[in-house]
Every structure is written in C-alpha cells, then in structure tokens.
Amino acid sequence: MQTEKNLIFPTLITRGNLIADQTEKNNWFSAYLEYSNSEGQSMDFLGFNLVHRDMRFFKAFSYIADVLRDHLLSLSVDTNKISIYITKAWFNVSTFNYQHLHDHADAHFSMTYYPHIAEGLDQKELIFHDINESRNSPYKGFLENIVTEDTDINGCEHIFNPKEGDIFVFPACLSHEVGYPDDDILDNELDTLQWSAQKFKTYEQLQHSRFCVGCDAIITRRDTESYENLLLPVDMWKQY
C-alpha cells in the first residue's frame, strides 16, 4: 500500500555547541563560588540569577543569543524586527541524575549551556515532555502499552544526552526534567532533592560535576513603528 504521511505541528528544539577552554572553565568555576551561599549552593530560586551580567561571560551569552536567533530563523522569524533580552541566568550544577519536572513559563525561550561535564556524567538525560496526551492518541492511555517502540510520533517525551559544550534552545513553557532518579536515591529523599541544590565549595568539587548554565529570554520588537504582536522595547517600559 502506498500512502503519504504528513507530520504537522512539530516542536522545535535547537542544539548548538560552544567548547570552553580551561581558562573559560575556571572562570565559570570562580563565578559559581562567587554566586553561591555559605553552604556552597547556587540556584535561581536561591536568588543567584544574574550571571548574564558578568562581563567575563559576554562572549558566551552573545553566542547563546545567536543560537536563539538561529532557532527563530528556523521558524521563519524576521530577526531584523526583534530584540533578544536575556532576563536571568543561573547555575545548575550536580553530580546526580535528577531534577524534577518543571518549566520556565515566565519567559519566552529558555537555554541551557554545558561548559563542563566531568567524565562519566555525560549520560545524564535532558528529557522534554508534552504534558498533554499525544495528538495521535484517540483517547487518553491508548498508546501507553500497545506500541512496539517509543517514537516522536506516538510519545510525549524526547530524551537528549547533553555533551560538553552543548547549548539547547527551547520554548520556555515546555516541561522538562533532568534524568530519572538514580537507583541509589531513596523515595523519601526525592522530595528534598526536587527543591534543593547540591553544595560545591572548591574548584576540585566543581571539576567533578555536570556544570550547567541556565538562562531565560524574552523577545521584544526592535522599534515602535509597527505592531507585529510583540512586546514594546524595554526602554519604553515604565516601572510604577
């Protein structure tokens, strides 16, 4: 039988790469130790979310913004009409394979960058989820147990294994998590791990980690000449 299959409404995730040399890695490690609390913890929910304003990383964040620009070009966006603002950036550093399912829905796009991944930690998964049932399922649960393999057509999740230097760009509202809990993590420890940050106090400890830089961005229009269904430029905003 000859038929034609048409995939519609796909979700775009763009993957780029920027390799950091040892000097750049040391700068990231230094910044972590600067932007962390007395316990050696650093995460956005702890108030450490302004890494993008550190001039040591202007080159890196400019490159990340360029990957976002390339992502938008793939969507046929006229990038001459928009401005990209990175609104916050933070560290997500760990040695274990777990972070709870979440999204960054207060932004437009999210990016993750991995300037350093220690040996043995490059198999940790970055998992994206469509929290809704697959559009190809006639009813909830139909595709859960009868498929012969999981694919992007019948599933609601996609797994990436980030490598050193990788940059991922994705819609900020897209739910994602880091791996599944390691076998040696007890069920009664999961709730604590969901809302905690590991502690790193030395360069050596950081060198043995999976070092991730997360950041969020919003898109505005570049000028006020036309509407285009975009936010006004930030310099037109007024705080009250």
List the helices and strands and how they pair.
Blueprint: E1 14-17, H1 22-34, H2 58-74, E2 82-94, E3 99-102, E4 109-117, E5 126-129, E6 157-160, E7 166-171, E8 175-178, H3 187-194, H4 203-207, E9 210-221
Antiparallel strand pairs: 1-7, 2-9, 3-8, 4-7, 4-9, 5-6, 5-8
Separate helix tally: 4
Low-confidence stretches: none
**Series of H and E elements:** EHHEEEEEEEHHE
Class by helix and strand content? alpha+beta
User: What value does the Rg take, in angstroms?
Assistant: 20 Å
Span of the ends, CA to CA: 65 Å
In total, the number of strands is 9
Q: Helix coverage percent of residues?
A: 10-25%
Query: Average pLDDT, to the nearest integer?
Result: 89
Share in β-strands: 25-35%
Task: Give the overall form.
Answer: globular
Strands of the widest sheet, in order across it, are 1-7-4-9-2
Largest sheet: 5 strands, antiparallel
